[in-house]
Structure formats: structure tokens, C-alpha cells
Specification:
Layout lengths: L1 H12 L5 H6 L3 E4 L4 E4 L3 H4 L6 E7 L1 H4 L7 H12 L2 E8 L3 H14 L2 E5 L10 H8 L4 E3 L1 H10 L16 H7 L3 E3 L6 H4 E2 L11 E4 L3 E4 L3 H10 L1 H4 L9 E7 L3 H15 L5 E7 L4 E8 L2 H15 L2 E3 L14
Parallel strand pairs: 3-4, 3-5, 5-10
Antiparallel strand pairs: 1-2, 6-7, 8-9, 9-10, 11-13, 11-14, 12-13
Helix pairs in contact: 5-11, 6-7
GO molecular function: FAD diphosphatase activity
Pfam family, one: FLAD1_M
InterPro entries: FLAD1_M, MoaB/Mog-like_dom_sf, MoaB/Mog_dom
């Protein structure tokens, strides 16, 4: 009996399993709400493989509640299109730990490049860092470079007292929440913490978790600057040609051109071309797009499409709209 108690005692006294090591093993399983998704890539492999697909996760009660209009996902869609990255998914979720954990685990396994937006401020409802850290079993650690840049570039607003960086205070602790980042101590810090806008006197980092989750703030100006700043680091990993979009303006109704567009899509699908149709009823015109990567093929089918739609190629949607008559 004493022997069994001793064995149990030794078992309970063993160090707890390190989930960060589990997530950096070559073969691992990722838990989601009610399912298990097998994964075989390490964080370093995710961080270096070619980028074909992307996803964008917008985090924030204010977006779902209608208080804020999300413009970051639209910006990322254009950004991905310009680089030839296939943006496969955009999701908007609330500031909820379980929602964030489930979403980032799933997206990290399914897509090459993932960006999150929102929830990394100084207030109680900014829980993105801590939730993503928990998703991958990582601790939150004060990042020295983020902290130093924060002190260097943070400026008080008019009428606001400068913060005392050497004295503990609720205000300082709130600021430090934005510098405590998910950190895998077994990986190179230069791969986990990027500062693409340091030359613009911007202290905000891009924390990269599990090799492909890029955590960005929700403030559009900062989000856009950081995303643009990431181009330099990811361009060597882009191997797909840039996407090309042909825009055709047509006076035909969607119902009129639907049979032709259905047949056209079947015919061009093998060439990687997607046919899109977008109504613009207020202008009595509709837009049809041809999107693909083979310019020669797109050039070859465009005249036929224009003829069948009784339309014309435009550079920007709406450029051939009729101007309203002036009130004389």
C-alpha cells in the first residue's frame, strides 16, 4: 500500500506537460471544440513554407455590434490580390476567449498565412494576446524591444501627463499589456516578433504565433501600415503569379446573361479563371469580372465575353457611368 502511495506521489510531483513543446513537435494534434484536427507541421515549417492561401480573422464586439465598420478585411483582400495570394476566408468573431482559441487553431492548420485584427489594446476586453497564447500553450512574456520602442515613441496627448515608466501604476500596467506577447522560448525571437514600421516611429509589433498567425491591431491606419510592411518579409515565399482581374461593364440584366456566364465558367474553370457577376441596378448596368493568373488566356477570351455581353472593358467599375444631369 505504501509503495502505491509513493508511486502516486511521484507521479503527481512530476512537472506538468508543456503544451508549447507539444505544439512544436513534428506530429501533434490540435484540439478544437468537439473535434481533433491532425497537424504535422512545426511552427518553423509554417514560418518558412511557400504562401498560397490566407485567412483574415476580425476580432471585436464593436464590429458585430455595429459600432465600428470593419475596413481591415477589405484592405487585406486587396493586399492579397495584389500579391497573388488566394484569400480563402474572412471571419468576424466576438471578444471571447473560446471563440478566438478555436478560430486561430483551425485557421493555422488550414491556411498558409493568417492575420488577426483587433483586441490588443490596454483595456480589459482586449484579450487577443492572452487567448492566442492559450490556444498554443505559450506564456505571455514582456517583450523587451516592444517595451523600449513603446517608451521611445509614445507621446502624451495634449493635456495629458507623461507616463512615468519607472514607477508602478495602473496606467503603466495597462500599457504593458500591449507589450506582453505570446512567446515560444524554444524558437528564434526574430521569427516571432516583427517590427515592419520601426522606421516610421511606430512601436507596435507583429507577433507571429505558431509560425503563421500574425497578430495585428484593429486601428485601420496601424493595421494597414503593418500589413504593407510585411510585404518585404513574405515576398520570397510567394511563388504564384499575381492575380489579374478583367472588368467588363454590361447593360444586360443578370437573368439575361446567366445562361452564357454559366456555360463560360464551366469552359474556363480548367484554366483557373473565375467568372463573377455583380449587379449595379442604380446605374442600369452590371459588372462581370474574369479573374485568373494566365494573362494570355484571359486576353484570348475577353473579346468573346465583351461581344456576348454587349459590353466594354473598363479599368475601374463605374468609370462609364453616366453623369447626372445638372440642375439648371
Amino acid at each position: 500500500m505504501f509503495s502505491r502511495v509513493s508511486q502516486l506521489s511521484r507521479h503527481l510531483s512530476r512537472p506538468a506537460i508543456s503544451f508549447s513543446s507539444i505544439y512544436t513537435q513534428r506530429a501533434r494534434t490540435t484540439l478544437t471544440n468537439n473535434s481533433i484536427m491532425a497537424s504535422t507541421a512545426t511552427a518553423d515549417e509554417r514560418n518558412s513554407r511557400n504562401i498560397h492561401t490566407a485567412a483574415c480573422l476580425i476580432i471585436g464586439d464593436e464590429v458585430l455590434g455595429g459600432k465600428t465598420v470593419d475596413t481591415n478585411s477589405a484592405y487585406m483582400a486587396k493586399w492579397c490580390f495584389s500579391l497573388g495570394i488566394n484569400l480563402k476566408r474572412i471571419e468576424v468573431i466576438e471578444d471571447d476567449e473560446s471563440e478566438i482559441i478555436e478560430a486561430v487553431r483551425r485557421m493555422s492548420d488550414k491556411f498558409d498565412f493568417v492575420v488577426t485584427s483587433g483586441g490588443i489594446g490596454p483595456t480589459h476586453d482586449d484579450i487577443t494576446y492572452q487567448s492566442i497564447a492559450k490556444a498554443f500553450g505559450l506564456p505571455l512574456v514582456l517583450n523587451d524591444k516592444t517595451y523600449e520602442l513603446m517608451k521611445k515613441y509614445s507621446k502624451p496627448r495634449p493635456g495629458e501627463n507623461p507616463i512615468n515608466w519607472d514607477e508602478d501604476s495602473p496606467r503603466l500596467r495597462a500599457r504593458l499589456r500591449m507589450a506582453e506577447l505570446p512567446t515560444d522560448k524554444n524558437r528564434d525571437h526574430d521569427k516571432q516578433f516583427l517590427f515592419p514600421c520601426e522606421d516610421q516611429e511606430m512601436w507596435v509589433p507583429v507577433a507571429v504565433v505558431n509560425g503563421n498567425i500574425h497578430i495585428l491591431p484593429g486601428v485601420p491606419r496601424i493595421f494597414q501600415s503593418l500589413l504593407d510592411g510585411l510585404k518585404t518579409s513574405i515576398k520570397p515565399r510567394l511563388v504564384d503569379p499575381a492575380l489579374i482581374r478583367v472588368i467588363i461593364s454590361t447593360p444586360l440584366r443578370e437573368s439575361t446573361m446567366a445562361p452564357y456566364l454559366t456555360e463560360l465558367q464551366k469552359r474556363v474553370e480548367a484554366h483557373g479563371v473565375k467568372v463573377g457577376s455583380y449587379p449595379r441596378m442604380e446605374n442600369k448596368k452590371n459588372t462581370v469580372t474574369l479573374v485568373g493568373k494566365d494573362k494570355e488566356f484571359l486576353d484570348s477570351i475577353t473579346p468573346e465575353v465583351v461581344e456576348n455581353l454587349q459590353g466594354k472593358v473598363v479599368t475601374v467599375e463605374g468609370e462609364d457611368d453616366e453623369l447626372p444631369e445638372a440642375n439648371l
